[in-house]
């Protein structure tokens, strides 16, 4: 059964989530399949950012720390985000960057392991985990006398050993779109006495996450991808309440103090998740992120993350099937798992030649996805064409258009034209 | 010789820096003497923040990382800031918070000491240093087997010992406005084999700083005080080139990698100061800070930091002399040193009673300074009325007005009115 453009338009017409698209600025002539790298701008963000600058900062000045609620933004945004990840109010703070938050929770986990189970001296992660996560882990393991052991994708049985302290995973792989079963892996780890840290960079706002339901230990993630918080938006951190008050994290700054305004000379960590704060936060960027979170929460009356997930799977299923129908014979292969339970909200393709140039040719046509190079050091030879589907603002006709352009780029060998193969820095 | 309002107006009229005030929004009816807590908004920031949101983010999307120069902002802003602190291009990055940057440089300093001089196991700071700096030092010393020794203000001879690894000081004290002689102290420390870390939170943009001239080792500071970068603006870090490439800092994230876009599995620090970066930065807040830095640099053709310093001293001299002339007999005492070489860009007063209520009464009249409580644990009993003078936008008539209101609040006992003594959280 072939799907037509008319079918796609009918799907958009029947999509109950379609009105959410109006909450965002999607540029004319652009099919944006890179929301897993930087989400689009919620329309409300422009006015909100202007308000923070011209009213709260310029007019309110120092008084706005209280009057405009700046000081409690990490917790207020955290409470909003908690609703999207199976966490409770008071369990999440929005602050700093993902890398810094990972440093905090991995430090706490290593302290905990050293105290509770000193024979556990190994941290396990996947070779294909997001590199910055591995960089942070390399440094912390070295400094604390732990060994970082990297395993092949999915070979997690190796982590369930009596010498392993922490299993640190990214829930949805940034390169392949493959998704782990958080609940099953966490349960297996817990059964083996292993703590779990989940990086939700490609999960929060993209797929349903149930941190308390999975009984995870720690989680961190990113505000500027599927949460549409703006470039470099602050990140987040969640710690299970059974741990949150137990250990200090090493970045013991005043925003994590039990009484930050006492300016007491001794550090005394706040109760619970607030001790994972450190220094003053960038308020204008925080305000933009709050607009992104509010736009996510606008989906709650329409079925929330479950409804978004159903649409995301419909979009990625459609993309896969259209690519296979319409681009057949061009050597394009699917990298992302076909099984729904193993797929995040992106589809990754590969081709033995030209992946970079094809992505560039698509961008020139207004279809923005991104390219990921081979990771030779990790034994991953595939070059990736990556397409993220954010169901809040991507529709079925968009998906058709993306494949139509891909087909034309391949049919006409457009990607072999001069210029498209010229590499420059990408993010 | 008494100074009159007319004298003050004449001083404003003759002030060659006066046109700089037009670069900033100073709210009607407000005399803002709290720029050492949160600087005012440069007029350019409103349009720039809007541009980042509605053009670079909303329309440029992921392409703006290159096209709009987002990725190089830490270095670009660092190069601008370097000019204000006696540093060279390529020696400063703007990133993260002051507390986090202090963590990075103190970690590097402790690593260096452990390697070069393992008998040096003490970190010295002042009891009255900014508390969050002490919190960071407490944690790092404990984790690394160092002892944190706190000395009384200025009793720094105690730091010049063969067992001391690091002397960590704030250049201008946040509570008293007293300024250290960076060059002399650094030279004495260097003579004793002690590394120096300077927190420039109340110095950068406020007083001339010559990091290379002083031959300091490390410096950090804040973007939202005298640099007018907006609420929670990112902070900065400088490391002397002789150290910058030598040690890794522990927050080894991808922005500090030698080749961040290779996504290589192993961490390899960038050359020089860029290795002090960690994760993705909040671009909208960074853009606002760049406006603050550009407004500072607009003073360069008018004499730059030296001219700003001369005006700052004239303003604080005037404030002190007017308070002593016009508020005599009300029990107000000067806390900030009278000597120019010992004074930052703020004046701190104290009174045996009512300091908090007096500040509140002044705020109700539109004269915004701030209050700092006694620090009993450190043996500091004085309650502080703190007034910051930012010569970029504060004038001589402003200074007259502030004292006039203070006089009226004291003459009429207005501060004893109900309400002014009711404390709430302040920053």
Summarize the entry for a quick read:
Two copies of one chain form a homodimer. Chain A contains 13 helices and 15 strands.
Layout of strands and helices, then pairs:
The structure is a homodimer of 427-residue chains.
Chain A: H1 5-14, E1 24-25, E2 31-32, E3 41-42, H2 43-60, H3 64-67, H4 73-82, E4 92-95, H5 98-116, E5 122-126, H6 131-144, E6 147-151, E7 164-170, H7 182-191, E8 195-199, H8 211-214, E9 218-221, E10 235-239, H9 241-244, H10 283-297, H11 304-326, E11 333-334, E12 346-350, H12 355-364, E13 367-368, E14 370-372, E15 384-388, H13 396-411
Parallel strand pairs in A: 2-13, 5-6, 5-7, 7-8, 8-9
Antiparallel strand pairs in A: 1-3, 4-10, 9-10, 11-12, 12-15, 14-15
Helix pairs in contact in A: 1-13, 2-10, 4-10, 5-6, 11-13
């Amino acid at each position: 059964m072939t799907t037509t453009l008319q079918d796609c338009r009918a799907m958009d017409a029947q999509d109950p989530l379609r009105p959410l698209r109006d909450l965002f600025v999607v540029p004319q002539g652009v099919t944006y399949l890179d929301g897993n790298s930087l989400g689009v701008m919620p329309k409300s963000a422009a006015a909100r950012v202007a308000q923070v600058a011209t009213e709260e900062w310029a007019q309110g000045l120092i008084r706005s720390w209280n009057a405009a609620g700046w000081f409690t933004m990490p917790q207020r945004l955290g409470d909003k985000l908690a609703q999207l990840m199976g966490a409770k109010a008071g369990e999440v703070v929005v602050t700093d960057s993902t890398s810094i938050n990972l440093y905090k929770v991995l430090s706490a986990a290593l302290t905990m392991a050293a105290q509770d189970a000193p024979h556990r001296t190994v941290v396990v992660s996947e070779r294909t985990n997001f590199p910055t996560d591995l960089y942070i882990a390399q440094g912390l393991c070295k400094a604390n006398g732990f060994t970082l052991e990297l395993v092949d994708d999915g070979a997690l049985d190796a982590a369930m050993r009596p010498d392993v302290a922490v299993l640190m995973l990214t829930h949805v792989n940034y390169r392949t779109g493959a998704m782990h079963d958080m609940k099953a892996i966490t349960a297996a780890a817990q059964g083996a006495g292993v703590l779990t840290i989940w990086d939700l960079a490609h999960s929060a706002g993209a797929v349903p996450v149930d941190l308390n339901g999975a009984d995870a230990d720690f989680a961190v993630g990113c505000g500027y991808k599927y949460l549409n918080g703006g470039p470099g938006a602050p990140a987040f951190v969640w710690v299970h309440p059974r741990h949150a008050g137990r250990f200090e994290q090493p970045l013991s700054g005043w925003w994590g103090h039990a009484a930050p305004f006492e300016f007491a000379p001794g550090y005394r960590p706040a109760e619970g998740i607030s001790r994972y704060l450190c220094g003053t936060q960038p308020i204008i960027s925080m305000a933009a992120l709050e607009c992104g979170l509010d736009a996510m929460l606008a989906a709650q009356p329409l079925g929330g993350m479950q409804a978004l997930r159903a649409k995301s799977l419909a979009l990625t299923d459609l993309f896969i099937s259209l690519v296979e129908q319409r681009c057949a014979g061009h050597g394009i292969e699917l990298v992302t798992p076909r099984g729904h339970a193993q797929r995040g909200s992106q589809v990754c393709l590969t081709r033995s030649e030209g992946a970079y140039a094809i992505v560039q040719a698509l961008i020139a046509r207004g279809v923005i996805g991104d390219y990921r190079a081979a990771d030779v050091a990790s034994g991953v030879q595939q070059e990736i064409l990556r397409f993220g589907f954010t169901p809040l603002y991507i529709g079925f006709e968009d998906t058709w258009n993306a494949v139509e352009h891909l087909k034309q780029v391949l049919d006409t060998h457009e990607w072999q034209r001069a210029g498209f193969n010229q590499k420059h820095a990408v993010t």
